[in-house]
Amino acid sequence: MTGPQQRPVRQRVVLAERRGARQARTRVEVTEQTEIGEALIGGLIRAQLGLALRVALVTVLVLCSLPLLFHLRALGSAVILGVRLPWLLLGLAVYPALYAIARLYVRLAERNEQDFLELAED
Fold first, then answer.
1. Which alpha helices (DSSP H) does the chain contain, by range?
2. How does pLDDT run across 9-54, given as a tens digit for each residue?
3. pTM above 0.70, yes or no
4. Where are the domains of the chain?
5. Across all residues in the chain, what is the average pLDDT?
6. How far apart are the C-alpha atoms of 48 and 109, rounded to whole Å?
7. How far out from the chain centre does Cα 74 lie?
8. d(Cα 5, Cα 99) in Å, to the nearest integer?
9. Residue 114 and residue 122: Cα distance in Å, rounded?
10. Which of 23-27, 75-79, 93-97 has the highest mean pLDDT?
11. What angle, 0 to 180 degrees and rounded to 10, lies between the N-to-C axes of helices 35-72 and 15-32?
């Protein structure tokens, strides 16, 4: 070996630390309920309320339109397996429809929460 060995120059990586500090700052703002944190939480609450009202409106419109549909059309007098069609639809078909609407609501509400978490971490 000839001559003194030179050490590599150490470099500090700042990008990773800034990102973590930014995430921590946003979480602190939400936790401490600063103005920005309150705005973020208020946006989530408004999004969830809007979703709930839209789903409730669609559900009520669909369920309330069934008796009108049976009254105005010949469907009200149709008989299947000895039972009138309105009784079959109102007694059996409504429950799977309500279950599907509830599953859709939960999926959309969870998506709203995931969007909030992504926004809070950015």
1. 15-32, 35-72, 85-88, 94-121
2. 776 655 544 444 445 566 666 666 778 778 888 888 999 999 999 9
3. no
4. 15-121
5. 80
6. 6
7. 39
8. 73
9. 12
10. 93-97
11. 70
